[in-house]
User: What shape does this take?
Amino acid sequence: MSAVLHTDGLTVQFGGLKACNEISLDVNRGELLGLIGPNGAGKTTFINAITGFVPATGRVLFDDEEVLGWVPHRIAHRGLTRTWQSLELFGDISVRANLEVAATKLTPIKAVRDYFGSSQRVAARVDQTIDALEMHEVLNARPDDLSMGYRKLVGVARALVADSKLVLLDEPAAGLDRSETSWLAEKLRQVIDYGISVLLVDHDMGLVLNVCDRIHVIDFGKTIAIGTPEEIRTDEAVIGAYLGSSGGEEQ
Amino acid sequence: MSERVLTLTAMSSGYDNTAVVRDINLHVDRGEVVALLGPNGAGKTTTLGTISGIVKLMEGSVEVMGHAVPKLRKAHQVAQWGVAHVPEKRGLFFQLTVDENLKLAPGLTGPTDKAYDLFPALKPLKGQLAGTMSGGEQQMLALGRGLLSDPSLLMVDEMSLGLAPVIYEKLMPMVRQVADETNAGVLLVEQHTDLALAQSDRAYVLSHGDLVLEGSAADLLRDRHLIDAAYMGVEELDSDEEIDCPHCGKTVSTSATHCAFCDLALPENGA
Amino acid sequence: MEIYLQFILLGIGSGVVFAALALGLVLTHRASGVVNFAHGAIAMYVTYVYSSLKDDGAYPVPPLPNPFAIVEGILSWVGITVALPDFPTFIQMGDEWPWWAAMLGAVITAGVIGFLFHYLVFRVLRYQPPLAKVVSSVGLMLILQAAVVIRFSNRARNVESLLPNDGVDVLGTTVPMDRFILFGLMIAATTVLYLVYQKTKFGIMTRAAAENEQHATLLGISADSIAAVNWIVAAMLAGLVGILAAPITGLNPLNMTLFIIPALGAALVARFSSFWVAVWVGMGIGAGQSLLQIMEIRLDWIPDINLSQGLPLVVIVVAMMVRGQVLPSRGAVERGRLPLALPTRIRPRVMTVWLILMTWLLIWGPFEWRQATINTLIAAILAMSLVVVTGYVGQISLAQLSLAGIAAFMLSSLATDAGVPFPIAPLLAALVATFFGLIVAIPALRVRGASLAIMTLAAGVAIEVFLFKSDGWLAGDSPRRVADPSFLGIEFGPNSPFWFGDGKVPSPAFGLFVLLVLTGCFIAVIRLRQSMLGAQMLAVRANERAAAAAGVNVQGVKLAAFGISSFLAGIGGTLTAYKFGTYSMESFAILASLSLFAFSYLGGIATVAGAIYAGTLYQQGIGTLAFEKLFFDLGRYEAYLAGIFLVITALVQPQGIDVFDRRERRRIAWGFMVLWRRMTGNPDRTKPEWVTRIYPIYPKPQEAVAEAPEKVPAEVGEGGGGS
Assistant: This one.
C-alpha cells in the first residue's frame, strides 16, 4: 500500500456539533499533500483527531496500523508528528533542547542512564535535522527570543526530528509576512527531499499552491476537489468556496 | 464632508510582541459601508480587535470617534463611545438567555423591543439560552444586540461564517440598511468577496498583514483578478524577485521590508 | 436516634460558616478567576475586629512598617537606647461599642479588605498563570493570620453570642435557637444574592464577564469594576457570618482560617458556579462532621480514623475524581508566564566561598548561628523539593511538609522502634514519603493549576488527620523520638561530640552532615535540570499537549517529578527529625507547608539557587537571625513580613530573588555605564555582551533582535549565576 496515512470517515463530535465530518483522505509516501478548506471546516480538529488529542470515530491507518484511540505520545513515537497553529514551543529550554526532547523516547531506564551521563544522546538525529533545515545559528537561543519565522521553523524541526514518517503541519504560515512565508516554503520542499511525507494545512493559498504535490479541498464534511496545484488553481468549485464569487458553499 | 468615525494611521498590532498586521492606513466615514477583505490569517480579525482595544496597538495610531484607542485594561471604554463590534464567534454568552444577551447592549436604558422588531424570529426565543440556538439565530442575536445600542461605528466580523447562503444573503443587506438609515459607519470583514462588495462603498484587501489593495467597491468588482491574485497569492509568486540580504547574505524576496533571516531592514526596492 | 438529629442540627452552626465561605469563593472565582485561599482568614480577621471594637472599643491597626525601628536598631549598635514614635497598635474609641456599631465597623473593614485584595493584587494578576494567583492568596492568608497574632496573640478569644441560644425542642431533642436563626439568615442571604445575580443588570453583567471576559469588554463592560463589587460582597458576607457564628465555632487565628478547606470542598462540588449547591453542601459538611463526631463515640463499627475531621477532604477528593478539571474556564487569556527555569551553573569559586562560610558558621559560630544555619540548610532541601515539582513541572504542591512529616515519623518507627541502622532508616523513610507522594500524585495527574493546589492542600490535611493522628507507624500526635545518627561508629547528631567548637548543642558534626546532604541534593537537582528528564519536565510545564505531541509521556514525567520531589521532602523531613530529636506533628502542620511554599516562591521557585535563597530567608534561618542581630527582634512579625514579601514578589517580580538578582545586578551596572558614557561624552550606545545576555529574562523578541548587534539572539543560560 502506498499511502502512509489513510483515513476513512473520520468524524469528531462535540456534543451536537460535528467539528469534523467524515473526512477520508490518503497521504502517499513521500508526497506533500495540502489540505485546504474554509474556516470552520474542521481541519485543525482533523489533525487533533489523528494525533490522539480528541476522541474520534472512523478509521485512521498510519503506516498500515490502526492508530485511532492511541495516546498522543505513542502516536508520536510511531512516527506521526505534528506542529501547532499557535506554535507551543517549550519556552524555557534552548532550541536544541526542544529538538532533543522530541527526538528522545525516554523510558525510565533511559532516563536514569541519561541522568548519570552514560546514555548515548540523540545528537546524530538532532544534528541531521539542524543541517537539513539550516538552523545552526539559533540552536542555543530560547524559542521566545526568535523571530516568528524562526519560531515556526523550530516547530517544524521539532516535528521532524522524531524520526517521523509523516508530519502534519497546522497553519505554518499563519502570522508570517510574505518573505518569511516563501522562505518557509523553501524549507518545506527540502523536507520532502529527505523522504518524509507531509500533510500541510494552511489558509495561505499561495503557499499551498506553491509547495504541494497534491491538494485536497474540503468544505464542511465533503471533498470538493483533489488534484495538482494547477488543477486546483482553475477549479471553479474551489474558487467559489474560497472567494464566494459563485455558489459552491453549503452548510 | 461627512464625519470620520474611524482612522487608522500606520497602525501595527499583534500578540506577544509580534506584529500580525503592519502599517495599516484605513478610514471609515459616517454612512458608508467599508469592506475589509483578505484570505484567512491575513490579519482582519486582529485589525478589528485593535480598533476595539482588545489587541495591543504596537505602532501608529487608532482614532475611534475622535478618541485615541485606550490601553488593554480600559478597552471597555471603546464600546461606550458608540462602537458595536460583532466578533467572529459572535460574542454571545451561551449561558445567558436571548433577552439577557440583548440587555447587555452598551448604553441601553430602555426595553429590548427594537431588536425583536428588527429580527422577529428572535421574539419567540426570548427566554432560551443563547447556546442552544442555531447559527443563524445566533448571528441575528449578535447583530440585534449590536444595533440596539445605536452605534456610530458598526464592525461585523465574518457574518457569513458557518451560515447557510439563504441566511447570510438575507442578513448581509441589513448592514447597508443600517448605514443608510442611521448614518453609522460600517466596517465589514468578509471572506465572501462578492457578497461583501455588493453591499460596500469601498474596500481594503489585506494579505499577510499588509494592506495590498484598496479602492471603491465598483472598481474592485470590475478588476476581480486583482483580488483573486491577492487571495491566491498568484501575483506574488510570479513577480517576486530575489536579492541577497546585505546583512546576512541569504536570499530573500524584494517585496519584504525586513530580512526573514536576520530581521534587519532591507534596502528599498533592492537598490 | 434523637441524639443524632441533635448533632446534625448543632452542626449547622459551623455549616453556615462553610456555606458563606463557599459562596464567597464562588463569587470571587466568578469575578476574577481566583481561588481565594485567604477567604477564611478574612472572616477570622473581621471577627477579631468586631470583638475588639465591641469589648474594648479599640480598632486594631494592621501592622505597618515603621522606618524608625531600623533607626532604633542601628542606634543600639552604639549602645543608645531610644524610643522613637511608632504607629499606634490600636485606635481607642470609647470603652465598649454597641453590637450593631461594632458589627458595622467590622463589616466595612471586610468590604475594604475585599476591595484592596481585588484592586491591589488580583486585578494586577488577572492575566498571570494560576501559580501567581495561588501564591498571592496564600500570602494574603499568611498576612491576615499573622496580623491577628501580632495584635491579639495566639490565644482563643471569647465572642459573646448575638443570637438567642435558648433551647428549642425539635422532634424530641433540644437544639439552641441560634442554629435555626443562622440557617434562616443564610438561606435568606443566598436567596437575595441569587435573585440579584439572576434578575438585575449587574447580575447579568457578572455572569457575562465570568463566561467570557473579552466578549464582555466588547460590550463596554468593565470586568474590573464588576470584580471589585463581587470581592466586596464576598468579603462582607464572610465577615458577617464569621461574627454571628464565632460564638459557636470558637475564635482563634487558626480555626476560622482553615474553614477554607470545607468551603473549598463545597465550592468544588458547586463547580465554582452554583450558589445553592455551594450553600447546601457547605451546610451539609458542617452537619455531617457533627454527626460523624457523635457516631464515632457511640457506634463501635465506625472505624476510629478521625472521619469527622476528614469529611471535607473526602468531599474534595470525590469532587475532583468525579468531575476532573472542575474549575470552569473564564474565557480570559493568560498573558503572563511562569518563572523562568534558568539553569543554575555550578560555579566552583562561588560554591567554595559559600561552603567555607557555612562550614565556619557550623563549627565556630555561636549556638544561635549554628542553629540558624542548620535551619537554613534543611529548609533549602525542602525548597528544592518544590523546585522540582512546581518549578520544573509547574505542578503546585501545598503538601510538601506533610510528606516530610511522613518520613520523620517513619524514621522514628524504623530507627527507634525497629532498630534499623543509620543510612537505611532515613533512606527507607524517605522512600515511604515518596510512596505517599505518588499516591497524592495519581489523582493529581488529572488536574492542574488552582485545582491541583486545592487537591494537594487537601492531601496535606488528610495526611495530618488520617495518618499523623492515628496510632500507626506514622503517628505524630504525641511526641516521637529518634536518636542521633551514627555510621561506622561515628556519631553526627545534634548532641554528638565534635573536636572543635564549644561542645554545646547543636553539634557541628550534625551541621556538617546536613551541609553534606544539601550539597548532594544541590548537585543532583542541578543535574536533573540538565538531563533529558529535566528537559522533558520543562516541556511539560510549557505545554502539556505539545509535549505529548512531541512524544513525551506527560503522566510519566509528572509522576517522576512528584516522586523525586517527595523523596527530597522526605530527606528534609528525616533531617528535621534528627535536628529535634523529639518532635510531633506541629512541626509539619499544613500552615508550615504553606509558608514553605511561600518562601520557595520568594527565593525563586524555578531555580536551584532560588532554593538556597529560600532557605536563607526561611523562618529561624540565617537571614532572620542576621536581621535581628542588626536591627530588631522580628518575633511575631516574621510570618507577617514573609506574607507581604510573598505578595509583592508575585506582583512585581514573579521570578523570585534568584533571577531578580541575576538580572538586576547587570541592569544596575549597565545603568551606571550609560551614565558614565553620557558624562564623558562617549557617543557609543552599543550594549556589551553581558547586557544583551539578560534578554532571556526580558523576553521581548522584537527588541532583542533589533537591538542586539549580532543577528542571533542571546544564548540561553549564560545569564547563569547563583551559588
Residues 234-240 of chain B have pLDDT under 50 and may be disordered. Chain B has ten helices and twelve strands. The CA atoms of residues 160 and 168 of chain B lie 5 Å apart.
